[in-house]
Amino acid sequence: MAMENSSISPPNGSCSPLCERNWTDFNCSIPGQCFYPNFYVLLPVIYSVICAVGLTGNTAVIYVILKAPKMKTVTNMFILNLAIADDLFTLVLPINIAEHLLQYWPFGEVLCKIILSIDHYNIFSSIYFLTVMSIDRYLVVLATVRSKRTPHRTYRAAKIVSLCVWVLVILIVLPFTVFAGVYTVPEEPDHKSCVLSFPGSETFWVKAGRIYTLILGFAIPVSTICILYTMMLYKLRNMRLNSNAKVLDKAKKKVTVMVFIVLAVCLFCWTPFHLSTIVALTTDLQTTPLVIGISYFITSLSYANSCLNPFLYAFLDDSFRKAFKKMLECRPA
Questions:
Q1: Residue ranges of the G-protein coupled receptors family 1 profile domain (predicted)?
Q2: Cβ(130)–Cβ(262) below 8 Å
Q3: Which of 11, 100, 165, 295 has the fewest CB atoms nearer than 10 Å to its CB?
Q4: How far apart are CA 78 and CA 138, in angstroms?
């Protein structure tokens, strides 16, 4: 079995999913070379903040959408699922932090598969739900331009689409779940690592996994989103030029702008991660403190996306702000 270090390797070859984000290691495969003391305390602090903020914010979003009757819209159904995906990831961050501090994996095979799977769910689920939201926005704009209604665009239909996205993401992540496992360093039987262990040629599987993640987790969905928004802007431009066309009402404009900004923030957080994959595929960078520092920064940025969306909703959506305020009010029984 060839072991594929899916993370920046801490001392003695351990492989933490906390630092992982799927091969941002820039070909760092020699145990003990990829860890520096400055990161030992700093990273758990950063990830603890992301965990606390993300868990609080996304849980609040989930609560508001489920409890407030006016929040049950098609767009909010997709936002709900996006918040669930982010919440799921932040829930397992404490385990990753513990592994980072212990510098070995003490939690067993089953939990290793779960943690690595959830980490990869987070890579794919965010961009896929944003792709669905972009498709939804395009259909709304198209229907408005043509002065048509969208009878099939219902809350129930949004639930079915969300379920299909979850099934698709699970199928995409399944290979990582299968290959995830606990690896024991031969020289140190007590030192265990949670890694992706591939059969056969390690080089082939590493490259195949990177390309697989890059294409399915970035290239295809981002290309789809770019095409949709280009077409959407074209339709809106023609609509303004056509004096007989009805402009988008204020509410639809606000939702469209919100989806666009959430998408922009997601791409800002995730693009460096996927660019690092391209760098890893095309170059052979030497492992230096600077390279490792950049790699950790890229990982932190991708993690941070899981806690930013609730602030965007609160800032951009009046209904969210009002619902948050009601939730925080202390009313007598």
A1: 57-313
A2: yes
A3: 11
A4: 15
